Amino acid sequence: MENNYYLKDGLLYKISGGTTYRVSIDDVASDNNKSGLLIDDSYFFYVGMEHVATSAKKLKSIASNYLNILFPADIVSAYGVFQNSSKTVIYVINNSLLDIISNNSDVFSGFKKISTPFLELCIKYNEFIFFDGIKKYKLENNFVSITNENDVEYITSQDLFDTMDSVKYSMMLPGIIKKSALQLPIVAPAVLLFIVYITFIIGSISDISAYKKVNAYYEDALLKVYDNLGVSSSKDPYGSLLQQAKAVTGGSNSQRIISIFNDLNDASVEGVSFEGINIRDNDIRVTGTASNFAQVEEIKRIMENKLQNSVNIDDTKKNKDGITFTMKYQKDNK
User: Fold this and answer.
1) What does the alpha-carbon distance between residue 158 and residue 117 come to, in Å, rounded to a whole number?
2) CA-CA distance, 244 to 246, in Å (whole number)?
3) CATH number, domain at 77?
4) What is the separation, in whole angstroms, between the first and last Cα of the chain?
5) Are residues 154 and 287 in the same domain?
6) In this structure, is residue 63 part of a structural domain?
7) For residue 126, is it within any domain?
8) What are phi and psi of 233, to 5 degrees?
9) Which of 34, 107, 143, 190 falls 20 to 30 Å from 113 in CA-CA distance?
């Protein structure tokens, strides 16, 4: 019989018949029948990406470019890419999990498969809303996004435990080498070099079309993010975005900043751009410009629906270039 375990808040639990109960690291290390480890989703931040059929190596490179478009580089330290059917999800790894792995690499390496409840549910279902205790993720039309919808049905890790018989997916995590990994036989150097060369050439040719397909997608996404956050007119829009992020972020609340950027990006209206963001505790203050007053009201409506909270528009002024405004609202520091 294979045994599955669950890591949450730095503690290990054994999963048995839908029930979890505490075990020690020594218990897990000495278990010769351990098979799968599920890591709580709070150790990750998930980013949806357009599905691209390519090799695992090229896919991670594409994901890296995509993350560089969305976030300043110092926010993302380690990540991986999940792909199943037509779903592609980037999982950004929390530094606290990296510390746990570093201190217990032998225990982690003993598992045949390591995954998360959310990724296992992505294999099982095509559409659902998942709550990890802090954030809600929506899988819809093979794309994953954060949702702030209230009064909606969602599933949790426990729903997976109740029906799970085994861990299906095996994710890649830094510092973990699967003990079950096969050892490659020694090949004569000349033969090995030939195989590597041919594989590289074939792989490169087959993936050119994949890069061409997503290149336009990345460019459009980059311009949209820059426009929405008011830095597109800068000589160095990425640098301007980085300075905005550094001005308001620390290591402990980077996920909150990402969530705020996501809110504003999702609320984009053609003709409206956001030029500045000020965050003080739970109070968010955003300055922006619009072509007309109707667009300002539209932004207010979209944000109120998304946040399920009141949004105030102040300091509205009309000038030759359009309308300047200040949008104020509250977002819990979670």
Assistant:
1) 9
2) 6
3) 3.30.420
4) 40
5) no
6) yes
7) yes
8) -85, -5
9) 143
CA distance 214 to 231: 23
200 in a structural domain:
no
Contact present, 129 and 153 (Cβ < 8 Å): yes
Q: Is the pTM of this model over 0.90?
A: no
Q: What is the pLDDT of residues 253-306, one digit of tens each?
A: 556 677 777 777 777 777 788 777 877 778 888 888 888 888 888 888 888 888
For residues 153 and 283, membership in a common domain is answered with no
User: Domain tally for the chain?
Assistant: 2
Sheet (strand 136-140) strand order:
128-131, 136-140, 143-147
Q: Quote the radius of gyration of the chain (alpha carbons, Å).
A: 23
Query: 78: which residues sit within 8 A by CB, 6+ positions away?
Result: 92, 93, 95, 98, 174
- Domain extent, residue 247, equals 237-330
Which residues neighbour 12 within 8 Å (Cβ) at sequence distance 6 or greater?
5, 6, 22, 23, 24, 25, 27, 28
